[in-house]
Please model this.
Amino acid sequence: WTSVHAVGSSVIFNGDSPMPNLPQLLASDDYRIVLSGLKSGSTAGGIGTGAFQVAGFSNGVLTLTANENCWQGRPFLDAVEIHVQRAVRDQWLDLSVGRADLVEVPAEQLRQARERRLTVAVSPPVTLLALQIPDFGVLSNLNLRAAIALALDRSVLSNVIFQKQGEVTASLLPQSLTGYSFLFSADQDLKKAHELRGGLSTPQLTLGAEGAGAMQLAAQRIALHLREAGFNVQLAQSSQRADLVIRRLPIEGGDAAAAFESALRRTGFAAPVAEQTPAALYNAERQFLDRKTLIPLLDLPRAWAVAGRVRDLRLGQDGLPDLAAVSLEDAK
Model:
């Protein structure tokens, strides 16, 4: 949109073109509204219409209590405690000794969780792993960006780093959402990559990753692929100063056009799809991917290990647990 302003109890958005995806975009996490004037860390005055309300935040524990006036009806649970910034290893330990009912399972540890006989809830692909490439400086050359894309071996990332969890992809949106993801080639072609590079010697490029653990391992593997294609690549200490960045992008909602637009906005691009047809969405995605500024790699699920007393847990379209309908078997 070009401008936004309030008129009475309405909010008016003005734009140069139709915005059919505006309602879905405004419903995403990026546009959640927070009361202004609250001090950092304060929960006083927090309001909402969801199943739970913020009751407090202390010593790394966020406490939520049931919203008696929730429009969907009161939840079964009286309260929820969320321990933030807790290592996955510690979460699993808490689950094993009964100090937690629901813990994270990163995609790369799904196999390990199942080997430990944890009860795991797994979502469809809801996160896109992608390599972002700038289109300025030495990488303003489209052939160089295309050579980088062709040098990547997605199957190694999937099989080795992420333990065959998720799906190899060269599309921004998963096959289950669009039906056309298979039309984008995800094959590595080092010979073609060398041809496109044309013997050009590039200055040293730095490669970073948003996150630790598997993301850093993925960065190391991608650096090897690019060196095989003749690029001088070194790992960066921080993704904020890197030339190339491996990113995790959430795939939000069940509407393909809105998910496409939302993913691009997170990377600093704007590519609205005015015509809401599969053909229009495919053409918009094809045109964007031909620029080689964002290279899709893998579609990954979100997963959670669940304690035996938890009942009726369901995952939302974003892969997050919907706690509104959850109950506990031995709750009094």
In short: The two ends are 50 Å apart (CA to CA). The longest strand covers residues 52-58. The mean pLDDT is 89.
